[in-house]
Automatic annotation (TrEMBL):
It comes from Formosa agariphila (strain DSM 15362 / KCTC 12365 / LMG 23005 / KMM 3901 / M-2Alg 35-1). Coiled coil: none annotated. The chain crosses the membrane at residues 12-33, 45-64, 71-87. Residues 5-91 form the DUF3817 domain. The lineage of its organism: Bacteria, Pseudomonadati, Bacteroidota, Flavobacteriia, Flavobacteriales. The keyword Transmembrane applies. Keywords: Cell membrane, Membrane, Transmembrane, Transmembrane helix. GO terms for cellular component: plasma membrane. The keyword Oxidoreductase does not apply. NCBIfam families: integ_memb_HG. This is DUF3817 domain-containing protein.
């Protein structure tokens, strides 16, 4: 398996989990309990994982010669909850 693709799959999983935790736990706690602690704890790691996902997706896309539509869908997956898991099963796993 390509090491960059393997790294993308790991980062995609972690980015997806951090996004779900951020939206599903941290943000509701922030507004319901007026406690921004969890947003502060999860925000920076999620941001770093997001940037890493985008960079790795571009590198893998260039290496695998993805067309513009596939590249756009893989990048869009990082903005949609559970999107990175779908991208992994549809685009990353078959390529490995």
């Amino acid at each position: 398996m390509n090491s960059v693709l393997k790294t993308l799959r790991i980062v995609g999983f972690l980015e997806g989990v951090s996004y779900i935790l951020l939206l599903g736990i941290a943000v509701p706690v922030k507004y319901a309990l007026e406690d921004p602690t969890y947003v502060k704890l999860l925000g920076m790691p999620h941001g770093l994982l997001f940037v890493a996902y985008v960079v790795l997706a571009i590198l893998v896309g260039i290496e695998l010669k993805w067309n513009a539509k596939t590249m756009a869908l893989v990048l869009l997956a990082s903005l949609v909850p559970f999107g990175t898991f779908i991208a992994d099963s549809k685009y990353f796993k078959p390529a490995s």
